Amino acid sequence: MTYSVKEMYYTLQGEGAHTGRPAVFLRFAGCNLWSGREEHRAQSVCRFCDTEFVGADGPGGGKFESPGALATAVSKYWPASSAETQPYVVCTGGEPLLQLDAAAIGALHDAGFEIGVESNGTIAAPQGIDWLCISPKGSAKLAQLAGDELKLVYPQAEETAQPGEFEHLSFRHFYLQPLDDPCRDENTRRAVEFCKQNPRWKLSLQTHKYLGIA
Question: Which of 97, 134, 148, 209 lies at a 20 to 30 A Cα distance from 203?
Fold first, then answer.
């Protein structure tokens, strides 16, 4: 399998349970809920995506013709000086589970990486992922009903994707993340109030945007 990657880079995880953790971000190209093109956004299932995932032309991006080639490329971003810390890679997109398969997971593990995945949950996850974060989008039906972290962008325009719809699912952590649009301050206030009234939910902020890092 050839893996199409938009970009790779080394940074700090900006949101969710691993906020602040150093990680290599492996952003796969493509998504099943939006083409990534602005002219299609209004008709898409997910209309609020804030990432660029079209093509393989970003920093560190490209076409990788084998799992080993992909893992080798990811390894180059982890600092050699951190030998006592297990490397961590976040596989994201777009929708990473369109491409991330057992062979790629095995190659990344062989390279020493702990593997985190950020998915919209519409594709069942393969075995071997160390940290699975699912972020439901609009009316899209979930195929993955268990994991480590459910992170819900809030509020969403659709009357679907409400927090109460997901509380019965088998996740260790439940996060609300304020929608980053022109009403972000009000969205944040609403998310804070919801978490205070429903303490099963915790607040996730996109700290990388506040800090101005990738």
Answer: 97
pLDDT tens digits, residue range 128-170?
A: 999 999 999 999 999 999 999 999 999 997 677 899 999 999 9
Domain of residue 29 covers: 3-211
| CATH number of the domain encompassing residue 184 | 3.20.20.70
Catalytic site residue 49? Answer: yes
Structure tokens at 127: 């075995």
28 assigned to active site: no
> If you average pLDDT over residues 114-133, what whole number do you get?
98
pLDDT > 90 in the chain, percent: 90
122 catalytic? Reply is no
Q: Active site includes 118? A: yes
Report the domain count for the chain. 1
Known catalytic residue at 31? yes
DSSP bridge partners of 22: 12
Among 2, 40, 50, 110, the one annotated catalytic = 50
91 carries an active-site annotation: no
The residue from 46, 91, 133, 195 that is catalytic is: 46
